[in-house]
Amino acid sequence: MTTTIRLHLSPKLPPGSASPAFPSPTLPFTKPRFFRLHPVKQTNPITKTPSSYKNGSGSNTPPLPETECPVPHEQQPINEYQSLSTSFPFSWASGDLVEYCSRLFVTGASFALFIGLPVDWFGSVGPKSDPMKLVLAAVSSGILVVTIAVLRMYLGWAYVGNRLLSATVEYEETGWYDGQIWVKTAEVLARDRLLGSFSVKPVLSRLKYTLVTLAVSLLVCVIPLINVDQGGQEGSYMTSKQVGVRAIPGVYNDDSARSFEPDAFCGEPGLP
Fold first, then answer.
1. Which alpha helices (DSSP H) does the chain contain, by range?
2. Omega prior to 89 cis, within 30 of 0
3. Under 8 Å CB-to-CB from 228, ≥6 apart: which residues?
4. Long-range contact list for 5-9, CB < 8 A, 24+ apart?
5. Fewer beta carbons within 10 angstroms: which end of the chain, N or C?
6. Is residue 60 classed exposed, middle or buried when 0-12, 13-18 and 19+ CB atoms within 10 A define those classes?
7. What rounded mean pLDDT belongs to the chain?
8. What's the burial of 66, exposed, middle or buried (CB within 10 Å: 0-12/13-18/19+)?
9. pLDDT 10s digits, 68-98
10. Is 113:194 a contact under the CB 8 Å cutoff?
């Protein structure tokens, strides 16, 4: 005779509580099983954002307006502006006004003192007798060198300014033979024109005023220099009468020629 033992598994109720209305399930007595738990690896979702143009820095920066821009990094107008504003001597024009004027003055004075004056001193005849000519020539050479430097600055800033203000960008992919044109997007065009209007145009205005001032200064130095040269030529000029009076004996002159060849002077009045 076999006896079957059944265990009723039910939650233990507190005393005085009513029993549940549904019957408790009956489970056979079996050996409990233990399952090995494996840790769950939590992975953060990777969100892909559109990357900006390749600039070689490798930094995770937010996308810029240059996204999908085919223009090479060094040929983009904003990068050309940044490179120009930190290069020599173009950075002078965008700096402080006093520092800008002092650098131009030192450049011109150094060239006039160490190059212009020695060349005028050793290249002229009798420099001690005409010191004003030496000074004017040296100062003119210094002003001319500064004018050339400012003109070079103006051409560089004007080129960058035109590329910033233009709605299209001309660029070269690999060389001069494969030039392309890229139309700026609205964001790029607004940013470039803002930069060109408030950063490049003031620099161009400063350079224009500098060129006008240098041109006037150079003219003021050249006019007295020309007058000094003309005065020296008039002082050394001698009339034919003075030449006859100062004629050296034994040297050919009109009187001796008339006495030897009278037929050659036929019809011409003799010298008094």
1. 77-85, 90-93, 97-111, 117-123, 131-165, 186-195, 201-236, 240-245, 254-260
2. yes
3. 130, 132, 133, 136
4. 5/29
5. N
6. exposed
7. 75
8. buried
9. 788 999 999 999 999 999 999 999 999 999 9
10. no
203 closest CA partner among 85, 80, 82: 85
* 52, pLDDT greater than 60: no
Cα distances (angstroms) measured from residue 172 to each of 72, 86, 184: 8, 23, 16
Which amino acid does the sequence have at 91? Answer: S
Terminal-residue alpha carbon distance, the chain: 182
Sequence-ordered list of residues with C-beta below 8 angstroms from that of 63, at least 6 positions apart, any chain: 49, 50, 51, 52
264 CB-near residues (< 8 Å, 6+ apart): 257
**What count of Cα atoms within 13 Å lies in the side-chain half-sphere of residue 13?**
9
Alpha-carbon gap, residue 226 to 224, rounded angstroms: 5
Q: In the numeric block, which tokens belong to residue 142?
A: 């210094």
Q: Tell me how far apart the alpha carbons of residues 163 and 194 are, in angstroms, rounded to a whole number.
A: 12
* Residue % of the chain over a pLDDT of 70: 58
Q: Write b or e for each residue in 181-211: b if 16 or more Cβ atoms lie within 10 A of its Cβ, otherwise e.
A: eeebeeebbebbeebbeebbeebbebbeebb
Contact assessment for residue 229 and residue 176, using Cβ atoms and an 8 Å cutoff? no
CB half-sphere exposure, 7, CA atoms < 13 A: 6
**Residue 171 near residue 180, CB atoms below 8 Å:** yes
As a whole number of angstroms, the distance between CA 159 and CA 78 comes to: 12
